Batch of 2 targets.
Target 1
Amino acid sequence: MYYEPGKSAHGLPHDPFKALIVPRPIGWISSIDRAGVVNLAPYSFFNGVASDPPIVMFCPSGKPAGKGFKDTRRNVEETGEFVVNVVPHELRRAMNATSAPVAAAVDEFALAGLAPLPARRVRPPRVAGAPVHLECRYLQTVELPCDDPASSNAVVFGIVIAIHIDDAVIENGRVDVRRFRPVARLGYMDYATVEDLYAMERPSAPPED
């Protein structure tokens, strides 16, 4: 099949785009507003984009009906801080529960039965039970084109200023993802758990003539 997004119909019951860019890591992002109200939400348009210094991004696209920007974006831009929590297989249902479109005053930690842990360098709490936490300082927001004038499209960047790794997932000096089985997003309502690994050595440069 062939189609041009925004110009020609794909002819399928659901937009296939998100089912093609897979699997996508999930940034389970905790933030806090100026009044101290905590928010926790998962974002599947999320990734690390640099390593020196380490920088992450997430895309809080869309706008809840009758509201401004999504709570996470508003909180991060107002306070300059957030935490990325890595979702292990055991907390997949709790992560899904925090994706509900609830009011800003609702505590998603309580909603999903999660316990908060204090961070060291930022105010937003970490998720207890998550094997990895990235404490981040807000860097910038880049506005993107948006086909829906009633919505929004943006990428939020943050610099990672502190990292927590559960010692139980470290083996022989390396993080073993099989010990926590991170959850990834696929298309539609589908998810995947990382369990099978294989390695490929990077090839050396060919000898010069």
Target 2
Amino acid sequence: MVKLLSDQQAWHVIPDTMVAALGHDLGKLKSARGSLYALGEHPLAAGAIISAIPGFKELSRKEDILRAIKMHHKMPEGLLGKTLKKADQQARQQELERWVGVEATEEIKESHEEEAKEKPLQPSSREAVQRVQADIYGETIDSTSSREEIAPPQRMDISSWFDAAGFLAMLKPYINRIEGRRFLAFSMTDGLVYFQVKVLEEVARKQAQDAGCMEIATMAQDDPTMRQVLFSVVQQLRQQHEVIATHLIKATYFGGYFLVTRKFNTKMRGYYTPFHAEAFGSIAEMERAKPDLLRDILSVSPYTGSEQVS
């Protein structure tokens, strides 16, 4: 936060943002969790904790600091709040990169189009795109495919049918829903919800149909254009509505591979799009309503390709 503010020559804000930075994750302390509190709601708990610290109430900008802390996973306001969120995202991205052991990526950009022009897809990324397409759409990987055929999806205009609030409302019923032993989306106590890409496709088709856009609604299952539709949906949700957990997926993808670890150390790989749970309501309520089958999930982590999968 100090670096971000110094770059903007906003030194006068540094003292207050330091308080916010040091206190924004206090709600993750186990001692802070109550019957209605889950880890994903730690911003609210952090606000309550820092308010009780002696001397905090004497700070002249205590309300701004509290607001920044409580909103650092949502839509913050003002320089203090926006800087806290940006610093938090950058810190988590750096941690992820060190942990996974991948080459450092650039900060998430406002415009994917500019990034796509400036950075051609590297061979390793091309292979990943091929693998993703094969896994999601049941295609076979052709080693003779041209670079154009395996290029990352490009953003398209979906403004004629896409409505973000309606899309999120249609996604919500899928969370923690079990059909037999099959599930398409699940929540975690850290405040994230993971959706299989087929859920996003199903909802996109339904919303397009309701808006009379039959070109999208009736698109063939194997139509590669659907990748562009999904990418465009995720990009709009991540850039304009900030509900996508952007620190877990790269800017040129609409999802990512994750390793789901269950009880007895069983592991399975899946391709998911991670969302912040706040977009769907209380994570505590989601966790309380979670079926036993999904309670067996102990952790979710980015899949690097080196792990053994059951």
